[in-house]
What we know:
- The protein is of the alpha/beta class.
- The chain has one domain (4-227): Rossmann fold (3-Layer(aba) Sandwich), CATH 3.40.50.
- It is 43% helix and 16% strand.
- The chain is built from 8 helices and 9 strands.
- The protein has a 7-stranded parallel beta sheet with strand order 3-2-1-4-5-6-9, with helices on both faces. A two-stranded parallel ribbon has the order 7-8.
- Helix 1 packs across helix 8 (205-216), helix 3 (63-70) runs parallel beside helix 4 (94-122) and helix 4 (94-122) runs parallel beside helix 5.
Amino acid sequence: MTRTAFITGTTAGIGEAAARKFVNDGWQVIGTGRRADRLDRLASELGSNFRAVEMDMRDTSSFDQLAKSSGPVDLLVNNAGLAPPMSGLQAAEQDPLDTVIETNITGLVALTRAFLPGLIEAKGAIINLSSVAATYPYKGGAVYAGSKAFVRQFSLGLRCDLAGTGVRVTSIEPGMVETEFTLVRTGGDQAASDALYNGADPMTAQDIADTIFYVATLPAHLNINALELMPVSQSWAGFAVERKA
């Protein structure tokens, strides 16, 4: 029986790699994104097993109808997300912060709620992409880290809500992955992106796509609640200490 995955944010990075991974394994994939040209290219590459849906995660009013028109779905992968510029909150503009909150939190919750009836009927699975930022704070990351901490706790709470339904819920929490994440965060600064990943041997989008696939295809009686992963080169920073002169 062919299974169907609904994956958000398939125009780049982890979402794009996940779409390829699932289609290549015989799944039907409904993939979303805001960039129609990239969705069209991916649809052309992956063929009839991939259905492209141009969508903005902030347009929550369309989600109920989208869930109905998508048909039976066995897996929801909430991958779409972004981070604001790396300024402290005291220097930040509000609009980019609102975009992050509306995308990473509000949109994710609304989309999940819309797909829940079908996922419960299918005894399916939900995989939410959080981040190590949910656990380990860093300067300039207050809103992004807060949004990913929400995703982690939302996933755990959703497990409670869905107890007895057979639906599995997992929070995947990657560390450094070389994607367009930093390019988007810096407004297209390729030098900043290159500097971040240079010599670090970071994880790749394919690494995380493989992890998503592993979790999605586990036996139906097994749930991974949260899965944190980093490249070997990455660890935790020490505490910041302000010292008097």
